[in-house]
C-alpha cells in the first residue's frame, strides 16, 4: 500500500507543471466568485491574477515570459482594466533603458571587447591563486555591471577553468621533477609521457551548460566562442600535457575548482546590482517607484549607482574572502606560490587577441560616452538658482529627457558608425589597393536578432502591467488598510523582515518575478506605515539578487553547477553565509548611505498619504540608522 502511494506520488510529481497549471486557477477561483457582486470584486479579481502568476512563475509551468502575458488576457476578461491600457505597460521608459543597454552590450560582445577587458584585469593581479581569484571576481563583476549576469558568467567560467587546468599541469610537472631529484632514478618514459603534446582543455559547451536550467531572469546574450577566443579554451603546450580532469585531482585541487566556479556565479550576481541596467530587478525598482508615486523624483542611473556600487564592492570583497576561507583556508596567505603556468595561459590568450582593433576602440568610445551621459544627465545634488538641477538636460524641457534617451542615442549611433577606418579620399593609405566602399557598422540587425533577449522585455512588461493593475483595481488601497495594523513596528524591523523574506523567496523563484510580485505591495506598505518608499523598495530589489544557495536560483548559479564539480550542499553551505553577510551589508548601507542618497529617514511629500502621516506625526524617526546599527 505504501509503495503504491509512493509510486502514485512520484507519477504526480513528474507531471507537476500540468498539475499546477490546472490546480492553482481552480483552487483560487472562490476568491473572485465570493466577491463577485460586492465592492471588493476588483481587488479580489486582481489578487486572483497575482496568485496564478506567482504560482506559474515559481514552478515555471510555462516560460516566464509567457506567464508575463497573462495580464493582457485576464485583466480585460475579468473587467479589471481595458486591453488598450494593459498593453501600454509592456514597453515603458525603463524598458527602453534596458533595451538600449542590451544593444550596447551586444556591440561589446560582437567586437570581443569584453574578453580583452577581462584578460587584462587577470594579467594585472599577479599569479598567486588568491589574487587570481580576486582578479577573476573583479573582471566578472565589472562585466556584469554592463552586460547581463548570465553572459558575464558564461564568458568567465571557461576562462577560470582553463587557468586551473594549466595550474594543475604545472603542479604535476613540478611534483615529478621533485620526485626525480629525490630518488635519483633513471629516466623512465611512461605512457603518460608519450601523450600528445597538444591538448585541448575542453569546457562544457556553454549553451548546453546553462540553457537547460536557464530562466528568463536575466538577459541571455548568446555566447559563441570566437576564433580569437580559442586561446581561452585551448593551451598549446611544449611539454607533457596529460589532461587534468576530475579523475586524479587531489582534494585540494577539487576545492580550488569549486572556489573558482563559485567566484564566477557570485561575482555575476553581485556585480549586476551596481548599476541601474545591470540586472532587470533594478529596472523594476525604478519603474515601480514611478508607477506608485508619479510625483516622486524617481531613481535614475546616478542615484542608483551612488548607492548600489558601494554595496556591490563590499559584497564582492566579502564573497572573495569567504570563498578563500572555506575552500583554500587562511593558510593561503602564509604561502607565496607563484603559479607561472596560470599566468602563461592568460598571457597567451591575451596576446592572441592581437592589437586593439578599430571596432573595439569605437565601441569603447560609445560605451564611455553612454556612461558619462547617464552620470551627468541630472545632477540632483547640485541646485541652481532657478530651482532646476544641474546637468546637460538643463537645456531641454524639464523631465522630458530620461536615462532611456542617451541609451537610444548611443544605440542608434552603433548601427551607423563604421567598424573599420574609412578608406577614401584623404583617409586612404597609399599602400591600400582595395577599392573604396562602405564598411559594416559596429552593430547590425542580424546580431541583434540572434542575441537580443526579447523575453526579458516581455517579463518586465508583465511586472509593470501587474503593478498597474494593483493600483487600478483598488487592491493597493485594500492592502494599505491592512498594513496599518503594523504601525507600531519600527521601520528598520520591517526592512529586515522584507529583505530576508525576498532573499529566501528568490532562491526558489526567478529574481525578476520576485521583484515584480512584491515591489507593488511594498510600495503600498510604505505608504500605509508612513515609511519612505525607498527605505523598503530599494533594498528589496537588491535583495532579490542575493540568490547564492541553490543552482536554480539564478542563471549564473545554473551555469557553474552544470560543470559537474559542485554539489547542492557545496552551494548551500557557501551560499547561506553569503546571504547573511550580504543582507547585513545591505541593511547597514540603507540606514547610513541611504540617508544622503535617498533621504530615507524622512517621509517625502510626494507620497499621497503625506498629509495624513504629517498630521499624525508618525513618520520614521531620524534615529533609524542608529537603531539599526544598535540592533
UniProtKB/TrEMBL annotation:
GO molecular function, one term: solute:sodium symporter activity
Keywords: Membrane, Transmembrane, Transmembrane helix, Transport
Topology of the protein relative to the lipid bilayer: Multi-pass membrane protein
Pfam families: Na_sulph_symp
Keyword flag Ribonucleoprotein: no
TM ranges: 12-34, 40-59, 66-84, 259-276, 304-334, 355-376, 400-419, 456-479, 491-522, 534-554, 574-598
Top-level taxon: Eukaryota
GO cellular component: plasma membrane
Signal peptide (from-to): none
Localisation: Membrane
The family this protein is said to belong to: Belongs to the SLC13A/DASS transporter (TC 2.A.47) family. NADC subfamily.
Identification of the protein by name: SLC13A2 protein
The organism of origin for this protein: Branchiostoma lanceolatum (Common lancelet)
Phylogenetic placement of the source organism: Eukaryota, Metazoa, Chordata, Cephalochordata, Leptocardii
Gene it is expressed from: SLC13A2
